[in-house]
Amino acid sequence: MKSRSSQFAGSVVLAVKGRGRRLAVLSLLFLGLSFHAFGQEATILGTVTDPSGSVVPNVKVTITQTETGESRFSTTNDTGQYVAPGLPIGHYNVSAKATGFGATERNGITVNVNDRTRIDFVLKVGTTQENVTVEASAVQVQADSSEVSSVINGQQVSELGVNGRSVYSLYALTPGASSVQGDLVIPTPVSGDSNVSINGQRAGHNLQLLDGGENLDRGGSSASVMPSMDAIAEFTNLTSNYSAEYGLSGAATITTVVKSGTRTFHASAWEFDRNDAFDARNYFNPAPNKVAELRFNVYGFNAGGQVPLFKSHPTFFFYNMEWRSLVQGGLTNQTVPLASEYGGAFPTTGSDAVTINVPSNVLNLGANCPGGVPPAGIVAGKPFPNNTIPACMLDPNAQTLLKAGIFPAETTVTSTNTKGTGQFIGGNNSPTNVREEIARIDHQFTDKFSVFGHWVSEQVSQTYGTTQWSGDNVPTVSDVFGNPSYSAVIHTTYVVSPTLLNEAAFNYNGNRINIIPQGLFAAPSNFTFNRLFTGPNADNRIPSINLNGSTGTDYTSNWTPWINTANDYQLRDDVSWTRGAHQLKFGFSWALYKKVQDYFANTQGNFNFNGNFTGNDFADFLLGDAQQYEEDAVKSSGHWNNISLAAYVQDNWRVNHRLTLNLGLRWDGAPHTYEANQQSANFYPNLYNPANAATFDTAGNICSSAADPGCTAASPGLGTSPNPILAGLQFYENGIGIGGKNGIPKGLTNNYWPQFGPRVGFAYDLTDRGKTVVRGGFGIMYERIQGNDMYNGATNTPFDASPTVHNVSLSNPGLDVTTGGTITAAALPILPVGITGIALNYKPPTSYQYSVGVQQALGTRSVLGISYVGSQGRHENYYQEVNLPPAAALPALVA
Q: In the β-sheet with 103-111, what is the strand arrangement from edge to edge?
């Protein structure tokens, strides 16, 4: 694993936003990268002046949310400015009152996540009984912020016609977005398709937040939970130059807010349906070909309102329940062996005729025949008589598996099929079922102290027609992806004074992944196992059978059953303080991410048949002569922990009535993920001792003792494994270091602490009328190192052994069919092994973001904006082979 790569991105974005709509009309993308976040609230601020333009101090400003009736109070300071931070999103009325002036009120103000909405007042001289009420503009230019973002409100979220009713589909509606998603985005969180790049950045660097809490599965960079689209109050995509409050992301920070209850009780129900009966036939799938079944139903209800008790300290509730049911018909189109060949008889005439030769390199061809002698007419290197393998030469394990049905029978034979094969068209239906509950409570204890919280629970069951994350291409074995997922937030707000506010929050998100095989995966009772290792083989799984020659059929249950448990705990505190023309915000956060994940290990074994013996891969399988066999010794679990720390300070400085500066500095402390039980290893060049260079026997294996051919002694640098399943095995460990031992960092790589990210931005009102604003900014953002960089190396030496042996028997992978020699795990040669390593000095991925643009108000209902948004990426992770031989040596190695 290296971290030296760079990226550059730039995009010119022209956007129009208006009440009830947001339209991106141009997005020109060159290449790319982006960022991360925490808050889910907004700010209303402004300046109060008299008719002469002089500022008015000590004006009482009241900000009232129309949905709940809750009010926040502020007082203008000596510069006539007021600030109300930490406001829930929604609609507000703002009034200003001062002695000697008439009261003024602005109504219908909409605030979205992270908005800095300016509401200025010009007070008229008069009595306080004189009221002036003005309806606010539906949308406004961003005169106090340099961030680049887009908003989709709750009505738009629920009514947009996206295929699949998935929140992930909304990602692509942001100016600067580039989607590589499929046509149908399945509405599931972890297994859903969130592959959208913002401003050219890596899609895996996007961060999702739900009500301010992280909502992320760090193994796949998708969300832990996916709220119902009818439960979303707002969806905001922060794409560049955002506040120092947000961090730990190199790409977009995507914030979602759950709806809350209001003073008015409301309820709704819905159902969305899709069915293949409603669809036109695919042009490339004409009748009478089968049409894949499609049944898609999304239905549910929600209700919200005010609890009728304790109205002086109001409590609001919102509850949403939704079911998602999707059935996708299987239309696997795969080449398979002809069922007529299962008994060993291959076609001799016609287009399917294929010649099967007697192996010339198998020592004992008639091992299972009477007298241990092959039948008459069997001559090594010559075609089988009548192109038929005698029954006594058929491997009993192969026959057992065929009778059990590991390969589906062909449904048709076409002229395009490889000789001796047919085509299977069909397969399993793949049902997906989601049951989701969302509850949110908002309570105001006093006019200074309030709290809200949510709980999201999802039960996801998703069936795959073949084994996922594998080369399996036949539906005789498949799996079910079980994914219960959860999210919880408790957020408190305390108004210490009109100029000081504190917010504290506890956030949790987590999920479980249980991938369970189904179909034909357990070995029949008469199947004979002769595995190399004694470790467990869960569910007595059938070994993988890969016909990787002319047939290309692959049967495998891979490393299922597979279990993954992830829990993410976060604490944060944020303080907002207004002093003069400065609105300061500073805070810190701490997060602990714990994952227990099974190794990606196939302990049942993997057989490969490529036609090396007979000229046909399926004939090799019938004989039980495998060109290659691999087996993992251990199927264990890693216990991975990651701690993230952060602190920031942000100053939004109103320099004068036309210029606002956004100045911030953030520190992200993100030490690397580590295995809690010191079960991780890595190769370190500085630990490699040339004096302990490996010595090899005449077969190219590392010398285990003087008894090995061509060896005078055991090779230096040998060691053993702490795993009892691997007792007696030797490993070449020269240069190998164990995380957390002997001075090796527990996360295998040095932690990088000076992760300081400045944020600098400006907003300048060109006309002093709040209609035309020039904005720009620059920021440095850091990304956590991807968890998979560690998880993928879980089976490194000496914690697992995965030997590969060649020319072996299906009934006994320890038997070399070309020599007759047998081998057990204890007698395995010491083979050079591969390491999925990670660089010792692995700096976190870093994004440099910058933008400049202009916004112009078009009346009171639309704003036109054009911006240039750019970014550069540094220290991006990538994989490369680091131990390749010199190019000049290749001809001799392959000769």
A: 71-75, 60-65, 90-97, 103-111, 131-135
CA nearest to 293, candidates 275, 273, 271: 275
Question: In 550-699, at which residue ranges do the beta strands (DSSP E only) sit?
Answer: 554-555, 562-579, 582-598, 606-609, 625-630, 637-654, 659-669, 674-675, 681-683
Burial grade of 444 (CB within 10 A; 0-12, 13-18, 19 or more): buried
Q: At residue 399, what are phi and psi to the nearest 5 degrees? A: -65, -35
Tokens linked to 539 = 């569910």
CA 643, 648, 650 angle in degrees (round to 5)? 155
At 420-431, the pLDDT tens digits run 888 898 877 889
Q: Which long-range contacts (CB under 8 A, 24 or more apart) does 178-181 make?
A: 178/29, 178/32
Question: Tell me, what DSSP letter sits at residue 542?
Answer: P
pLDDT at 130: 55
Note whether 777 and 762 are within 8 A (CB): yes
Residue partners of 895: CB distance under 8 A and separation at least 6: none
Residue in the structure block whose two tokens are 């297994």? 191
Residue 31: what pLDDT? 28
- Per-residue pLDDT at 706: 92
- DSSP per position, 373-417: -PPTT--TTSBPGGGB--GGGS-HHHHHHHHHTSSPPPSB--TTS
3-state secondary structure of 614: coil
Query: How far apart, in whole angstroms, are the C-alpha atoms of residue 495 and residue 684?
Result: 53
Residue 713, φ and ψ in degrees, nearest 5: -170, 170
CA angle 120, 118, 81 (to 5 degrees): 55
Q: What letter represents residue 376's amino acid?
A: A
Q: Which two tokens stand for residue 559?
A: 């490393």
One DSSP character per residue, 358-380 reads: PPSS-S-TTTTSGGG-PPTT--T
Global pTM? 0.86
Indicate the residue type of 534: T
Tokens of 676: 């809690």
Cβ-Cβ contacts under 8 Å for 89 (sequence gap 6 or more): 40, 41, 42, 111, 112, 113, 115, 233, 234, 257
- Cis omega (within 30 of 0) on the bond before 798? yes
CA-CA distance, 346 to 103, in Å (whole number)?
96
Alpha-carbon distances of 53 from 44, 48, 49, 654, 657, rounded to whole Å: 21, 9, 5, 16, 11
**What is the SS3 assignment for 696?**
strand
For CA atoms 179, 201, 208, 516, the dihedral sign is: positive
Q: Which two tokens stand for residue 773?
A: 């604003």
Is residue 92 within a helix (H) or strand (E), and if so which, with residue range?
strand 90-97
- End-to-end CA separation in angstroms for the chain: 31
d(CA 479, CA 481): 7
Q: Is 721 helix (H, G, I), strand (E, B) or coil?
A: coil
Peptide bond into 561 cis (omega under 30): yes
Cross-strand bridge partners of residue 503:
493, 574
- The pair of structure tokens assigned to 365 is 């061809």
- Phi first, then psi, for residue 307 (nearest 5°) are -65, 130
pLDDT of residue 108: 87
For residues 836 and 817, is the Cβ–Cβ distance under 8 A? no
The two tokens of residue 173 are: 């509606």
Backbone torsions φ then ψ of 220, nearest 5 degrees: -115, 0
Q: CA 326: distance to chain centroid?
A: 21
User: Which residue, 604, 605, 606, 601, is CA-closest to 635?
Assistant: 601
Q: Which residues of the chain have pLDDT under 50?
A: 1-11, 13-39
Task: Report the pLDDT value the prediction gives residue 623, as an integer from 0 to 100.
Answer: 97
| Sheet with 554-555: strands ordered across | 554-555, 544-547, 606-609, 625-630, 804-809
Cα torsion 111, 113, 116, 122 to 10°: value is 10
Rounded Cα distance between 335 and 413, Å, is 9
Distances (CA, A) of 40 to 43, 83, 246: 11, 17, 11
- Rounded Cα distance between 335 and 554, Å, is 10
